[in-house]
Design brief:
Length: about 575
């Protein structure tokens, strides 16, 4: 609050009622002195003056009650008139020595402006009395003295008022600042308390979620172990007899005389079909096993420096008979300065062979282009074909296991749908990535990027990471973070209202949260999970339906039904 000397504020100025009380006392004293020491004429003048004092006091009291500013201005001007009338009626020239009193009262009741107005009016009145001689010849000597006293008093009270006004301003400013800081501190304290409560709830929720996560992790690990065991079982049970079948077929086809007779050509053709399908089934089993190992992170990469141009040429050589059979053009674009890559030769060759063989199988006209170039710290290899392309909705899932394009041209081309998924896993194990760009009717481009990485060298002492001038600094105080009460949290659905009374004796070891309906319990569990839910039925017959309803609404939290009769 900014207080100015020219601004009226009822809280920082003296009330005119105090002056009214003083006038009443003066009137009583004047009547008493008139009766005791004055003659008849002087007594009547004193009585008349006392009545005037009482009238001014009464009017001021009334105005001060209704309109404080008007009442105080009336009192400030009335004191000047009372001094003049006292001089005229009572004939007391010494009253002009009290001419300073209106200035002091105006300063106390209204401030500097009112004091200046009072001093100016008093000065004009003094001049008028001196000029007209109404006060008599004896009063002329007092007028000069009263004039000097008037303005001297004004100067003194003006100076004191300014000093007190500055002090008041300073006090109010710092008081408001302190009050504002106290309010901010109070709000900060309330916010800190709410934060602590939220932190307790968050910590409790986090602890419960961690328990659930640990349980789910155990389930996932068990599922992964079961999957690995299943894949290992399949690979053993399938590959062993398949290898025997393929071996026997090779013996029949290559050395039929070992069986004492020559096999017909039709039978040899059938045996070749059986051998080819057996090898295809073996290849699928190997793909499933490789994919499972890659997803489980159990695949070990045997890295070495590899010249990818050699592996690309060998992969193309494998599929060249199919390209020649379908009369497809093959173009190899490999830079002569292609740097060697530190990778697993077998896995990367399998990726290249998968992409080139897919391009050969799904392309009926046109040709295939294989590019290999260095870009920055990576090597990019791409395989472009002029096949049917991939529809946009299938591009996002083309690298998922057992997924192929839904187009009709893809359905009769064979394949297990594992090649691209395995290739993606192999590339990502090398910290690279694989992508596809395709347009229906124009063809597709599969490309992958491999980093030209160098083998990591482990050397040096671990102490090299510690500074010699490092100084341990212990904590000067313990953390003020509230400790989490590690109490099991149990939500109680108590329709009877008596269960909590019976169970509260265990509240020091279990945190019970009580509700009257299942709806409130569901809302509470969504806000903060619990270790268990206890449902207390109204009667034994209601316990079964209550638990069935609770199980439908709360499927993932242990439930305990009971009937606790009223005490």
């Amino acid at each position: 609050m900014n207080i100015s000397s020219d601004e009226f504020n009822d809280d920082f100025f003296m009330s005119a009622k105090w002056v009214s009380v003083a006038l009443v006392l003066c009137a009583v004293a004047l009547v008493y002195l008139g009766d005791a020491h004055l003659g008849q004429t002087e007594r009547l003048a004193a009585l008349r003056y006392a009545i005037l004092l009482l009238a001014v006091a009464g009017v001021t009291w009334q105005w001060e009650t209704k309109q404080p500013l008007a009442g105080r201005w009336f009192m400030a001007l009335a004191t000047i008139a009372l001094l003049y009338l006292g001089l005229v009626w009572l004939g007391m020239a010494a009253l002009w020595l009290l001419i300073t009193l209106p200035v002091v009262l105006a300063m106390a009741m209204l401030g500097q402006r009112a004091a200046g107005v009072s001093a100016l009016l008093s000065s004009l009145l003094l001049w008028w009395l001196w000029y007209t001689g109404v006060a008599g010849t004896q009063a002329v000597d007092w007028i000069g003295l009263a004039f000097v006293a008037l303005w001297s008093t004004f100067g003194v009270v003006y100076y004191l008022h300014r000093r007190s006004d500055e002090t008041l301003r300073w006090s109010l400013h710092h008081s408001q600042q302190a009050r504002r800081q106290i309010e901010e501190s109070r709000q900060a304290s309330v916010g800190l308390k709410e934060t602590q409560e939220d932190l307790l709830v968050a910590n409790r929720t986090l602890a419960l979620l961690n328990e659930r996560l640990a349980a789910m992790r155990l389930v996932a690990e068990e599922a992964e172990k079961t999957k690995a065991a299943f894949v290992a079982k399949i690979s053993h049970e399938f590959r062993t007899p398949l290898n025997m079948i393929i071996g026997l077929i090779d013996s029949l086809a290559n050395a039929p005389e070992a069986y004492g007779q020559t096999l017909p050509a039709a039978l040899l053709t059938d045996l070749e079909i059986v051998r080819r399908n057996g090898e295809h089934l073996t290849s699928m089993i190997n793909d499933v096993l490789a994919l499972s190992q890659a997803e489980a992170g159990q695949m070990v990469l045997h890295r070495e420096w590899v010249d990818l141009r050699e592996d690309i040429e060998k992969s193309v050589t494998v599929v060249r008979p199919l390209l020649d059979k379908k009369q497809l053009a093959l173009q190899l674009l490999m830079h002569s300065d292609l740097p060697p890559v530190y990778c697993d030769r077998t896995r990367i060759r399998q990726v290249i062979l998968n992409l080139v063989s897919n391009a050969a199988r799904f392309t009926d006209a046109g040709g295939i282009t294989v590019r290999a170039e260095a870009k920055g710290s990576d090597v990019v290899i791409s395989v472009t074909d002029t096949g049917p392309g991939i529809v946009p909705e299938d591009v996002e899932r083309i690298f998922e296991p057992f997924q192929q394009s839904s187009g009709g041209l893809w359905r009769d081309r064979g394949g297990s749908g594992l090649g691209l998924s395995i290739s993606k896993q192999f590339i990502e194990l090398h910290n690279g990535y694989i992508s596809v760009e395709s347009a229906v009717g124009l063809g597709s481009t599969f490309s992958f990027r491999l980093p030209i990485s160098t083998p990591l060298t482990v050397g040096g002492n671990p102490e090299r990471r510690m500074s010699e001038d490092w100084v341990f600094r212990g904590r000067s105080a313990w953390s003020q973070t509230p400790h989490l009460p590690n109490l099991p949290r149990v939500v109680l659905c108590d329709e009877s209202g008596f269960a909590h009374t019976l169970l509260k004796q265990y509240s020091d070891v279990i945190d019970f949260v009580e509700f009257n309906s299942l709806g409130q319990v569901v809302e509470e569990l969504q806000r903060c999970p619990a270790h268990a839910v206890i449902c207390n039925a109204i009667s034994p017959n209601q316990m079964g339906p209550l638990l069935a309803q609770a199980r439908a609404l709360i499927p993932d939290t242990p439930l305990l039904g009971c009937y606790l009769p009223p005490p």
